[in-house]
Amino acid sequence: MDPHVYEQVLRAVDVCHAGSSAQSERDAAYVYCEAFQERLDCIQYAFYLLQDASRPFHHRHFALHVVETWIRKHWKACSATKDAVTYRANILTIMASHLNAEEPIFLKEKLVKVVSDIAKRSFPQRWPDMLDHLMQIWSVGPLQTELVMLVFRSIAEDCVSSTFNSTIPPARRKDLLQGLNASFPVLFPRVYRELELQYTRLQQQDAHAAAVILAGLQMMKEFLDWMPVTTPAAPDANFIAVAGLLLHPNIDTPQLLAMQIVAAECLEEYFSRSFGKEHMALLHQASLTCWSHLAALSLTGPVDDADTLLLHTHINRIVVSWGVHQLDDVLADPLPSTTLPVLQSFLSLLQTLFNHPSALLTEAQVIVWLNVLKHASCATLLPYIDVPALWTTCLDKYFKLHSPDNDDTSALEFDDRDAYNAFYGNFRGRLYGILRLLVQKQPAAALTHLHDRLQYVLTVHAAGRDNLDDLGHCTDTTTAHVYHEGMASLVDCLVKSLPEVVYETPALRHHLGLSVELLLAYHTRDPWLLFRHCLCLSSLSKYYMRDPTLYPRVFDRLFGLIVFCEPGESIAHGSPMRPTSTNVRRRALASLISICHAGPLHVLPYLPMLCTQVIGLFPQVLDSEGVLMYEMLVVVSNSLPTFEEREAFIQQITAAPLAQWTDMTPIVTSQDKLVHALETHNATVVFGLLKVLTTLYGIAKRIQITPPPSSPPPSSTSSSGHGDIPSPSPHPFASVWPVLLPNLMALIRTLHALSAPLARESLVQTTTSARGILVMSVEEINQAMLGKEQVQVVDVAVTKYARWAKNTRDICYHLVGCAFGHANIFMTTDMPSSWVQSSLLSNLEYMEHRHWKTFLSSVWLPFVKSCPPHLYGSLLQPTVWHLLSHLTDRLATGYAAASSGDDMKHDVAYLPQFAGVDIQATTVDTVSNAVFVEVVRYTVDFVEALIDAKTVVDMDSTHPKHVVVESDRVLREFILSSDALTRQIVAVLVGVVGYTDTLSCRRATNLLDRLVSALAAQTQQFHQLLGKDVFTAALCALLAHFHDVDDGFKWELINLLRNIYCRVTLGLLPVDECKGIDPLHQPVKPDSDLCFAPRQIVASLHGVQPDDVAALEQSLRTHHSTKTQKNYLKEFLETPFLAYVDAPHTLKAIEDLPPVASSSHPKPHAASTSNDADISSLFGTHHE
């Protein structure tokens, strides 16, 4: 060893840690330290330095880091030599003899890391006596005892925890776990005795006892996940009782909270295990012991410090873990008498913590309460549940009364009010699940609570008194508004959950009517409260159907609010309206539509009155509000008894809009005239066009038709163009389309043409605000930014026309989709085909990404869903092929930009344009990425509609289902019968799988899996496509995600690879497809029916031998369980993938070791002198 090098290293480390060092000196020191670690003899310097315990902490920590790095890089080369034994002995000697009594945590953790790294590379094959060595060090002193426990913790953690086990090959993990399991009969009693001893010393204020106990708990936590469930609760070493006792020790130590937290984590881990029927008595006894310890804790009252909240959170996790994993097993039918005390104590603890001030604790319990209330034995449990208290807690917490601004517990849980409000959206949905079950069980109690809460809010908080605006009205932080907002949500929750018996029983219906009368008797002019008032009125629409005499009163109230204005506002004078006023007017209209939609037949007698009201209000409402009133009338007209009456009504209300639309023919058919209208600010034409389209769309989308029950479903033979073409049901809007569509298609063609290079260049160069039709609107930017950032408008005129262009294009697409949804359109000779070619598919190469979300969802999804089978060959096939071809090319540019991080690789025509706003370059990049993600996601939606469409049925029930209806099946069979379409679909999905958006990737993977199942039986035609292209893409995607923690996408990719390999290469069918065939003895298919590309691909992976492939295939053949097959494939791929992934956390030097003959039962060790004290009764009262 060179003394000069030694001194240089120490000087470099000092410079790195000195705050006064110049940056240049620090950089040079870093470089020297890194170069020093490349020396083969650097470990000798490190050992020499570590033998001097008087050295500064940073010197010794660097030395340990050098040893750690050397082990990672060079241990493999010397692991079978005497040098490895020497190095191991050196580090153990340092651990035993060269440490100070008080070492910092970071130094202890680094030393533990070094020892555990050696163990993970040597134990048990090349270090069979590791337990002997570590037990000798254990006996040296409390510091060494703590370190040895932490070493065992680290080894077990790296083998079991999904966060760390990707660093060790599967075979190595199995060796380590087997070695630990063989050592456990000696190790566990030693740990238990040590905990007893240190607990005694802790009560005597021993400074080191708490650290040893904490290390012991941390170690046992990692073993509890896989050791036999009987071991930690054995009578002579009941660790579960010890963990419960340590939750509330009568001691004072700075590490008390840490000990309590780890003890709680141990109990949470233990109660997440599966006990089975054979160990049910053990579960009962362990649970009772744990509940007795938890009952001794103070879990009620306000919480204003983070430590107490953290402890209560972990206590709650114990109870929730027990409820999730053990409740179903304990609730055997019939319940044995020994179970009732366990359940009684459990439910008492559960309810205590459910009422905790923390909303997060309450939310975590919801899944348990749902299991309790849904269980078949719920009636047996109800006597042990304080149901009134459960009602009160759920109802109280439905209101946002404890924001971080005024509640200490909430301030500890949420950063600000925005985070609190965001949490409440999901939290209320969870509470709704509990309330729904309570309402079903006790509808009378629900009505009482509803009336009482409503009466309290409408009387005590009838008007705002705090945090008012300049007009004296509420704001979002006003207490009265918080109560009204919660009440509106609660009314919707409770009324929606009421069983039908409430409306059939006069007494219960009268009880609900009292709440309705409370609402109708309430009056205010506060817009914030009126908005919530409208929501409450619409929630009770089902009750109005049982008492139609209420309709006039409700309609009068809502029609009065449609023209609501705050002081100084007037529609007639064109004065601007506050958002609060607009919100009230829109909400009143939406409530009217909701009420009419819920019971159109019951509202039908009042249709003349509604028409009179609407006609009288037209001069007093905005254009968008007028559209909503049209929609309301159409909803009611759906109940007119005859088709002729409905058709006449629709023709009457569409006459005026259609006349205006016809007059606009010169504008919509000419790019120049449309641009001129924008440049001259001709609002009558420009915004009149948008109003007409919105009105007609509102009418069209609200029309509902019921096909005659006798009409037969389309037959599958019609997909080939043969057979009778089914006659569509008559539609009230059918006479409107011939007038509406020609101009609509002309307008779409004009809008698409404005994106062409010449037209775009001309508009960009103009100085007028007309160029706004090419730029992204402020609303689109904010939506892409998810509301996290607001851009500043610098040119109002440009942004106004940007919004107009966006809204106009969207409404055009919506109307086309609505037209496709009306089967009569396809019966018009050549009309759909001419639209598609001349308008809808024109200039696609110039459309920006941001338009495709609506283009795909509003136009093409309805198209593929509604296109009749007899037009599949002539219309659907060429159209879909054109779209998929374009989307493949469009998405390819985005993938290239995403992989390189260079947005310039996007086609410039696809990127959004910005003008009229002050926007930063980083925001532009974020927005561009967001709109591209939308294109990818809606492309997957489109593909799904083609090959895996599902229709939701039983939507009004509590369990709606997704089923494949006949029309979806016919469409899928046609698509998959086309070679060209199938290959295009696979190309699109393969591209998506390699993209960075996990949601899209997962959906594409599942669709590919379904395609493999559907296409694998087709001999030869798609074998190369599936076995090579799809398999390779999935394998590459899996490599990128293989070491992600708890990633569902990873397992879906593994399942796709498994499905391809089993079906295409091995010719194996899954169990559910083996009709009359033994899954384990399936007939061997000829080679001509198989594809061996997947076998060649896996055989070419790093380090894979032919025997490995043969063993994998044998495992797949002999285990027909999908889960087992996925596990085999995952373990097979782990070793080669470790060689490909260059990640800092990947210890590629950990290799599998050859098996050696070693004793699986280590000899018992003599107890150290520290165990001679009489401690047999220390935990005696807690033995189970």
From TrEMBL:
Top-level taxon of the source organism: Eukaryota
Protein name: Uncharacterized protein
Organism of this sequence: Aphanomyces astaci (Crayfish plague agent)
Ranges that cross the membrane: none
SUPFAM superfamilies named in the record: ARM repeat (SSF48371)
Region (Disordered): 705-727, 1154-1184
InterPro entries, A to Z: ARM-like (IPR011989), ARM-type_fold (IPR016024), Exportin-1/Importin-b-like (IPR013598), Exportin-5_C (IPR045478), XPO1/5 (IPR045065)
Source species taxonomy: Eukaryota, Sar, Stramenopiles, Oomycota, Saprolegniomycetes
Coiled-coil intervals, chain numbering: none
Residue ranges of domain Exportin-1/Importin-beta-like in the record: 106-267
GO BP field: protein export from nucleus; RNA export from nucleus
GO MF, one example: nuclear export signal receptor activity
Compositionally biased intervals (Low complexity): 1154-1168
Positions of the Exportin-5 C-terminal domain: 341-1063
One Pfam family this sequence matches: Xpo1
CC per GO annotation: cytoplasm; nucleus; RNA nuclear export complex
